[in-house]
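Forum: Protein Structure Q&A
Topic: Joint prediction for protein chains with partners

I've read a bunch of threads here and the consensus seems to be that you should model interacting components together rather than docking separate models afterwards. I'd like to see that in practice. Below is the full input, 662 residues plus whatever partners are listed. Could one of the regulars post the assembled result?
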Amino acid sequence: MDQTALLIAATLSAGTPLAIAALGLLINEKAGVVNLGAEGMMLIAAVAGFATAYHTGSDLLAFGAGALAGAAAAAVFGGLVIWLNANQYASGLALSLFGAGLSAFVGIGYVGKKLAERSAFSVPGLADIPFAGPALFRHHPMVYGAVALTVATIWFLYRTRAGLVLRAVGESPESAHALGYPVRPIRLAAVMFGGALCGVSGAYLSVVHAPLWVEGMVAGRGWIALALTTFATWRPARVLLGAYLFGGVTMLQLHLQGQGVQIESQFMSMLPYLATIVVLVLISRNPVWIRVNMPASLGKSFDPGG
Amino acid sequence: MLRLEARQTASRLMSALSPVIAVAITVLVAAALFVALGRDPVRGLAVFLVEPLANRYALTELALKATPLVLCAIGLSLCFRANVWNIGAEGQFLLGAIAGGGVALWATVNVGVLPRPALVPLVLVAGMLGGAGWAAITALLRDRFNANEILVSLMLVYVAQLLLSYLVFGPWKDPQGYNFPQTRSFDAAAMLPLLVPQSRLHVGALIALALVAATWVLMFRTFAGFQLQVGGVAPLAARYAGFPARRALWSAMLLSGGFAGLAGAMEAAGPLGQLTPNVSTGYGFTAIIVAFVGRLHPVGCVLSGLLLSMFVIGGELSQSRLGLPSALTGVFEGLLLFSLLACDTLVHYRVRFGRG
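Posted by a regular:
Agreed with the consensus. Here's the joint model:
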């Protein structure tokens, strides 16, 4: 009973950074831009967030620093692909490689430094319910933030005019341009928003989840978040569910070891990566399903000038 | 006001100049970074651009580090030209190291079972097969299930790293190795002969050059190579012409996986002489930059491979010479690729002043 409650709690905690990053990437993919630099942005933000928390002791500032770092990195990428019409895949890869290098370089002074364990936030009245309390209501505020963010994203995309314009830019930039919408600035805003959320996610990893800085500590979560948007066929609610599913796969490792299952730790650590591959295979089997749901101009640059 | 005007055809001059401008920008930014870090910029740049060329031994090290970069990059060039986004060369490299290193380890334990002259070719073939087999997973999932090759090939990098870690921490660990995560040192007969005495440069460099020539022939002098590239530039035209897209996918993936795997086996049975968790220092990822800077051209990859090899060696030296961490290499590599992508705009666009 207690074991299960802890497993659920750990799953939600591990799924949270994936959900936040994937929701950000979802927004910029809805605008027609795919940013393979997620891993790099998360790494840069993880260092920025850790350093800020280490020097100021403020989580709020740390998340802010992470968001700023992520948005700044995304702006460089955005400038390249939106105004200079550079290839989106190559530019995203460049950002991932640059982010890995920069974060390793900047972070070297923070290796081995520790932050205090972040205390959980107990929802008043609900945290003491047996089972449900420890499973659902004793978490870092960011865990609830991810749920709120999902609701807000659904509302924004499907219930506001701005969300409609964003989707129009992703589906048919030519039509949006003809209607007088500034396609390029909208795309840049979406890309920077995606970067900011990847940044918050990176800061969560180094400040709350770990909490420490190690080179390459994002460990492929940026790429998994990218896979999540496809897996969720670009629907926010499915992104959240998918993120928890992957969080669960990550935590299964600890759970099985707790049960005394004898499997080498390296094989356990492969699970999230193998699960990503399996899920991609399952979801991509039907090309029509992907084509119907994918933003129609995804990955293509748009030149209003002609 | 500046604006971009699309060119009728891509400029060949700018295509060749773009990497040069990108390197110049990277050098300028690097100099500024050294100043910002309170180091002498001239001395800082010398560590990266002069010291790797300073003497005979330095030159052999340059060629040694360039060998895996060039091998991985020519394979990636084939892939990128065919519009196959294989970014998992690092994983294919590691599987090559595991397969080649595994054969070398087996030969070390079972001395005399196989004739000694057969060992090195066996190690290299095993490496190629290991890398190609790893790449085949990505090709298969792309071909049969339409799974995105970028994500699959990248996920397999993490799996490959964990597999290597399992082997050297577990079943392949040297029993006399004081519990260090490493295999036994390979028997000399299973290791690549040296090309230059009193250096670490091995015959693998020549093999790499031969494969560069072979890739050039395949790309520019065979019909199969032509088909492969048409599929990348104009998929619809390729389909109309009846060029098989599946064959392009498979051949690009298997060749690049094989090249990367060969590079991995050479690294294990070359300068390392054993397997450790750190067989690769990110060669497969750096090779992506090598391929782009080399214009996806085999000969260009040799030049850019040497350049990026200077970056790698400079990073190793910067710790002792400048007191800066070797991660500096990664920063410069990322800067170079960013600058290159920005400069590449000039290949397809003209910069015009004034309003259009």
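The CA atoms of residues 78 and 188 of chain A lie 6 Å apart.
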